[in-house]
Amino acid sequence: MFRFANPEYLNALYLIPVLVLLFWYLGRNRKKILQKFADKELHKTLFPTDSNLKRWTKFIIILLSLGCLVIAAANPQVGTKLTEVKQTGIDVFILLDVSNSMMAEDIKPSRLEKAKYQISNLINKLRGDRIGLIIFAGQAYVQIPLTTDYSAANLFLSAVDVNSVPSQGTAIASAIKLATASFDSLSTQKVIVTITDGEDHEGDIDEAVENAVSKGIKIYAIGLGSPDGVPIPIYNRNHQLTGFKKDNQGNTVLTKLDEETLKKIAVEGNGKYYRGTNYEDYLDKIYTELSQLEQTEFGVKKVTDYEDRFYYFLIPAIILLVLEFFISEKKSPLYARINKKLGLEQ
């Protein structure tokens, strides 16, 4: 297997055709200036040792050495063997509420955006743990299955918004049931973290939590929002505020944080409840606590062991540069004498 350790350096190879054009252009201008200075037939007399061939030879050698140096900087590598790396960690499913109430701005910039920001921070800190994401409103869906591909997880997370689930509501029980069923059979420590304002519209939470706990799963909860209630803003496509969500009677809808439901989930789920604020990252606190749990080996990842081969190009580059240094731009005296005897022009 072959690869470049620093492939971005290969972009410097685009300079080579630019340098060729520049060298040709300067050579052309040089000829025009000489023609203005003296007649073409006098050039051989005025510049008897000038060699256009050697000038191009030196330039080509410099280009070849430059190309070799660029490839050496990109560090070509050859995969020689596969090594096995044990993967250890815990499994965490984050349940993210994406209902319209999560657009409330009592948590800046909004409940949902704050939650996404904290989840992204958590993903960037993970080292070996598997993370999954379930989004829910009126229904629950697996957005990211358990994975250690953190780049992909961040990519899918960035696409989440209140339109990711077609039906509105807050089906916390369905999300917990889906997470419980989505854990695999590996004997890892399993944790569910629910991030919501807690306004459950479904019920059956006790049964869902009990089922999860029976399978050794801990449940933590983070509540976002104000218990006093705030309106839900409505924005147009240009992100301009057009008003606030209203009910069928035309009254402004207030969304309130239901702390009692979330505290009950955390207590029955053998976890903890945290109330989210604008200033603290409680998801990070939960992960710090989870990092103290026993890490379990859940697989083996095969990684290719690469060896550097940059010197295959660095050494020729140095040799070419030394060679170019010793090549003169003047015509060889021996070459001149041979041509003179043969009656040829140089």
Strand line-up across the major sheet: 5-4-3-6-7-12
CATH architecture of the largest domain: 3-Layer(aba) Sandwich
CATH class of the largest domain: Alpha Beta
* Helix/strand order: EHHHEEHEEHHEHEEEEEHEHEHH
Separation of the first and last Cα atoms: 50 Å
As a percent range, the share of strand residues is 15-25%
Number of domains as seen in the coordinates? 2
What sort of overall outline do the alpha carbons produce when their principal axes are compared?
Answer: elongated
Assembly type: single chain
Largest sheet: 6 strands, mixed
Q: Total helix count?
A: 11
Question: What Rg is obtained from the alpha carbons, in whole angstroms?
Answer: 35 Å
Class derived from helix and strand content? alpha/beta
CATH superfamily of the largest domain: von Willebrand factor, type A domain
Helix content: 40-55%
Query: Uncertain segments of ≥5 residues (pLDDT<50)?
Result: none
